[in-house]
Amino acid sequence: xxxxxxxxxTVSKVKRVVxxxxxxxxxSESGLDETAIEGIVDDVCRYKRLxxxxxxxxxxxxAAGVRRxxxxxxxxxxxxKQAAASVGQTRLMAAYEEAFGxxxxxxxxxxxxxxxxxxxxxxxxxxxxxxxxxxWNVTPIINENDxxxxxxxxxxxxxxxxxxxxxxxxxxLLLTLTDQEGFMDCDPQxxxxxxxxxxxxxxxxxxxxxxxxxxSRVGRGGMASKLEAATKAGRFGIPMIIARGxxxxxxxxxxxxxLCGTLILPAKERISARKHWMRYNLVPEGAVRVDEGxxxxxxxxxxxxxxxxxxxxEGHFEHGAAVRVKDPSGKDVAxxxxxxxxxxLGKIKGRQAFEIDWILGYRTSDEAIHADNxxxxxx
Length: 379
Fold this sequence. Notes:
Elements: H1 3-11, E1 16-21, H2 23-26, E2 27-28, E3 31-32, H3 34-48, E4 53-58, H4 61-68, H5 78-101, E5 107-112, H6 114-118, H7 120-135, E6 139-144, H8 158-168, E7 173-178, E8 199-200, H9 205-210, H10 223-234, E9 240-244, H11 250-255, E10 262-264, H12 273-281, E11 286-290, H13 292-300, E12 310-314, E13 322-326, E14 332-337, H14 342-348, H15 356-360, E15 374-376
Parallel strand pairs: 1-4, 1-7, 4-6, 5-6, 7-9, 8-10, 11-13
Antiparallel strand pairs: 2-3, 9-10, 11-12, 13-14, 14-15
Helix pairs in contact: 3-5, 4-5, 8-10
């Protein structure tokens, strides 16, 4: 493929964008970089006036809080990070509100945790709020709720969050601005001869391996997390562009199809919104191991998992829980919502559907996991 042609074709279809801004883009050594934020917002508003919609996922709250509080050694413990985020988030939102206000636009804040995306009702509520804000021509400014962040509800980093928001809002492009030119053929921090890869057609294992070890100077996410985000967005049919955020007017350059940064094309086969939610938001509570025949059938897609194909049940879970489905070797094949608890599955594994009644005394379903509640793991 010709990278320039593909780039122009991709951006020509874009109406709604998730713009992810890394800490290195919105902060500097002296604190929050309000000049950089103002420049980015100026460019965003240029396209808002043309009818484009932007959702901003912004890092920088913790970094801004650390500098605002003059914490010489940074924020090391979770309580320190939470407190720094509390101080920094107000500064961050004030900067966005002021910058957008100069153009007559309003902003709205959304702070999310994993819990907001795990529970289906809360997930849909978050989507409804997001779509309402866009309908009012309000620009959502989204961040992970670092002030209450603990490991159990942590989304990981804003690269991950931006991909989940992109699918939540069904956008046309995920634009990630960072401190690097884009995706390079090696780590530019250790190799000055690193070359930009302008187009990634498929996220192969070799491509993913190239990103290992790269890090951001300020934020939590490195290039590996950005490719993971591209994978998640790509499974929903959303392309991603990674570019250096400190380049003046980088957004117009991207939106006009200029060959800057790296364009990562989406997967050739996308999954539905509900199955994407299952695959990338739910936390598995256990696992079921299936026989070779069941594993092959599931890999082809479109079939349910019957109890007769289950050979082992791992962990403790209740009806409706998310579980991993593993082949005989232990490799993950799929993720699904089970119709039976671990105790019940332990009793009916390897048995035919007509036997369930006399084993359990009742039959909730013929399937251990229905096809509608199964999503295959990508290879």
